[in-house]
Input
Amino acid sequence: MTEKLPFAAPPRVKRRRRNAKRVLFHFVLFAVLGAVLLASGIFGRVKLKAISDQEIASRRQQLLVSSASDSVKAAAEACAPNAAQRRKVSSGLSSKASAVKKTAAEMIAAEKSNEEIVTAIVDTLAEAAVSRLTGDDEETSALKSSVTETLASARAGLISDAVSKVDAAVSSISLRDISKELNDSVDNYLFMRYSTLMIVVGAIFLLLALFLGWIQFFKDEDFRLRAAEIIEPLDYLLPFFVGVIVFTLYPTVRVFIMAFQQRYKLSGEFQGWGLGNFNDVLFGVNTKLPQALGNTFLYVLLTVPISVAIAIILAYLLNQKVKLRALFHTAYFLPMVTSAVAVGMVWKFMFNGDYGIINWLLGLFGGQKIPWLTKPEFSMAVMVIYGIWDSLPMTIILLISGLQNIDEHYYTVAKVDGAKAKRIFFRITVPLLSPTIGLVLIINSISAFKVFNSVVVLFSGTPGPMYNMYTMVYYIYEQINTSLEYGRAAAASLILFAVILAFTMVQRFIQRKWTYT
Output
């Protein structure tokens, strides 16, 4: 008689306990982070305010002296009928330049008003304007009297104009302007430069801490458990969200904004809002964008279909059960782990007109040497050949992945029916591989529109031998690196984005119309 074994119950799966302490932990964490950031922001704000006061005092002194001097000089020289006499007036004013600067500094230190300082400067310069007008002749005496009377009658107006200019200029100076002009070698630079951001983020953290503290200390256990269940997934997603916001979302939004800021500078200054950048890029004098668009479109239309067609054949062959298949896989995929610059340099030597291996191979068949890299008519051919080779590894990987997902039963049934290899390839493999082909067409097109490395490496940093191979990304790079036109570069980037988006949408529309029978 067979002995019955005791029934073995399935092992219990230990369920994760819900822990309401997560709310308390986040309350403490946000409170500490908020307090630290807020304190750091306030500290930076105080330091920035001290530097701002010094900078404003320095600029105030310069503005007081320059505004008063310019006004007096313009009024005094207007009385002189010839250049020689104007030079004498100007020379007299220049002789008191150091004195009025010293006077302005002393009166600022004594907390005198702008009107008092300008009055003292104007009176000093009024005397200096006629100090070099020496001589007993009637002309000099008349000029001296004219300058003295003019400055005396215009004294109130000169003072008022200079004071209004200084007040307007000083009031326009903000802490934000001062922070942008800070040198990164200054002590506490980070605290001062990002004081506003620290205060805002610190305040947000403290508000979150207050909210979590209200839940922790004024709500029941069930409410805290439900809050903990909401907080837990956010803990895992937060690093991802931070990375996306900082490195993807913010740069994208910033490029859109910069594209409409005319003559934008890294300091944040720009001349105004509008479509001026797009007008300069598309229709400006000597703009290279039309050439860049034409070259890029031609490169995409030549490179992408040829590379995908070759990759389909190679992927089909590499997917067969042949000897040394691993060796062939390694040989085709090796460029993916090789430096693009190093590979580009190798191709540059291969295309060399004198001792390159490509011309050597042509010579074996009786061909003539071709100046691949020095004649404009061969530049596109060089780019296309290199681009096809460069895009093959990833394309082959994706296509092999698609081939391995095709059910073997289709091939078995076709062979039983007597179908030939060619018919199987075009009536089974290609139709079933078409979703993957569509994917690699889109990926390769996007990559080809952004071609840049090959241009720089193959042509020694220039867009072709006669600057005939401008591409969209090289044009954007030149606007940033050479012309320092960041707004135009942003506008060109948006145009490239629109072109890629439109091209991709067209491809997607065509794919939906494909039929496989």
User: Anything to note?
Assistant: The chain has two domains: 21-192, 278-512. The chain has 21 helices and two strands. The CA atoms of residues 438 and 508 lie 8 Å apart. The chain has a mean pLDDT of 80.
